[in-house]
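Assemble and predict.
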Amino acid sequence: MSVLYVALPIAILMGASALAACLYCIHHGQFDDMDTPPLRMLNEDPPVRTRRQ
Amino acid sequence: MMAVTMERQQACSTTAGADARRCLHCGEPCTVVVVDERGNGFCCAGCQGAYAVISGLGLQDFYALRQHSRRWGECQPPQPSDAYEPFDSPEFLGNSAPRMIGDGVCESRLGVAGLHCSACAWLIENALRRVPGILAAEVNLRRHTLTVQWESSRTTLSHLACLLDRLGYSLHPLNDQRWQELDREGRRLLAHIAMAGFLAANAMWIAVALYAADFTGIDPRHRYFLNLAGMALAAAAVWWPGRRFLVGAVAALRTGTPHMDLPIAVGLSMGTVVGGVHAVRGEGAVYFDSLSSLVFLLLLGRWLQHHQQQRTSQAIDLLLRLTPMHATVIRTDGTRRQVLADRLAPGDRICVLPDQSIPVDGRIVAGQSEVDRSLMTGESDPVVVQEGDRVSAGEINLGHEIEVHVEAVGQQTRVGQILQSIDAAASQRAPIVLLADRMGGIFVLTVLALAAATLVYWWNEDRHAAVEHATALLIVACPCALALATPLALALAVGRAARGRLFIRDANVLQQLCRPGQMWFDKTGTLTRGKRRVARMEGAIQWLVPTAALQQHCQHTVAAAIVEEVRRRGWAIPAVERLEPKQPGGMAGTVSGLRIACGSREYLLSQGIDLDDRWQERAERFVDEGMSPVYVAVEGKIELLIGLADALRPEARDVVIALQQRGWQVGILSGDHPRIVHQVARRMQIDPHHALGAATPEDKVEIVRRSSSMHTVVMVGDGANDAAALAAADVGIAVRGGAQASLVAAPVYVGTDDLRSILFLIDGARATHRLIYRTFGIALGYNALAIALAFIGWITPLVAALMMPLSSLSVVGGTILSRHFRSTFQLVQGGG
């Protein structure tokens, strides 16, 4: 069980690195516009053309 | 899905061949006027040009991507290419001036008008990427902005603006420092939530391990370590993201106004200190999981409210789009140049085109025109001005081009001074004590007193248990649910109101509107439509048609009203055979072989037309009812009398009566003539003592301020002449179509063009208020129970950990499921 003394800090540090990445994204404005990116994704591919009958 | 399929079929069918009934570009039904060499039909040259550009760039996919869910914009002819020259001067761009970001690379952020859906963003981005020299282009649909990077040696901003204009979008410089401030605050909150979430989640895992250990047993050294680790996480949560509560509490203490932050801060810091001591000593309760999740939940509530308020204020800003004002300066050598209006100086000579608003106070040096002064005076009739007359900023030039000698600019103008007095009015207002803060204050004192009582009660028996029980009480009584419920209820109210196109910038007004007070309405443009219309006709109505034929050749508002009435009835307007030279007061001409003369009484008398008593009597009755009469004579004999009035909104009377039924005292505050104001008041059933006419903007502020000493004062208005009063009132409500100045001043903006929205607002405010009280009740019930348990020492960490989320959940659930601000307009029928 004494592995706990090593594993817990490591786990928290790993989580903290993900938190740091998240903070980096927030401070660089990646969460400012939540409206356009999800829509832009839909328009990346050329639309499928339906044939006129 | 159905709509999309149809859309695609339509797009394809139009690509395949000419569709006679729909414009290929804008999709509007039209009679085709422009046909290109491949036989495609367009409604105008602008659409043809846009289509040519789009297909030339190989971007026809645009037509399949877009959706015709709403009208596809106004068809506007493209500007001449030199109209965009100012885009190359930093003076014109102001805040949007390009920044050098690298070797010869510039970046700029501009506003885009004409965006509809994601297809527009796609088109703009792809079209710009195909322009040589443009490195990156990104459209933000929420802000309606375009961020673009380009190589300054290969292309210019004016070229880019010109291209977008041909596609049907116009660029304009931005003026958005406020947004940047809001953005920064939003980012800070979000970052704090991320941290608090991380810390709370990890603390929770450790807590789960410890709770499990209660049943299975654990090595005391491990328990000690886990307690320490959890406590470290909780202390980090309190000290880092939770600091805003501590700061708020210190501010509350300094100003002597206890509010919600205070009990939160006391609970947090007490819990941290006692928990920390317990963790180090290895005995007693450690509340780390409660502390960290408390910080997380509280921040979440704050963020919800901030986010919602930011969204609404953006919606308002988008509607207003505060673009910097521009003016055309005439230099001494006769050349013209566009500059920002605040760069003008007294002594300059500027030119004001028709339909532009005059940017400065000054004197006309050339030209003759009519100006609309309603912005400042509230008077609905245009005023004739000529060389030597004074004009002031905010007036709109309706007639011809005029040249103005600048006498005062910016804050020195009359409008500028009114805007300055808005700031003064806003700063003189007493701060509102929010309901939550008021209740919070009582709550703080009660909890602190109880904690002290617990301490004293247990002190003689067991000092150790006394401290422990008092701390447990403080933590359990921490008003998490209370602090979460109010922001949540307000955020929901603001969001739901915005869905009904009622934009609330400051949620605090909801609290002020829940109790009746005094409501002042502006007349022109608020109770009325602000535009003259044909209100009544007496005589032979068929003569309206030839009258309209004559009036089509006239620019006056009377003429516009008559022509519009004929169009509304769907009658065809014939051509005029002969038009006589225009004279003041009326006009005459030959239509279908008959001589028609129309105009004022004086004009007809000057034409030698006889007015018998019967017509004069009718005309006087029209005047008494607040209408201006226009006579129509056919072949020298009067046949028709037209009454023109600035028509009241059809719902205005019902709204006023419904407000009175709800206990509000309703009054009119107008710059218009007192007789007209009284006449409107009579029709609205408003007490004539509360119908004040001929009020200058300064008078309005004074009256609003005087009446606000007794009860809540609400001002509803639209013009710049209301702006200062809107700011001085406890709650300012700006209605659609008004002047930008008033909308900026008002915390509430009605975007529906329907006065019933005000009733919706008031009923919604009352419902929100009741909801907050109810959730307070539930949360207080929980807390009372918890405090009682803590007082007798029954609260163990496990019970505390269970009770806290339970009370939050019930409050949040109750708030979300409530129906406040949902029942749009249904109350109107009951009231009217």
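The mean pLDDT of chain A is 80.
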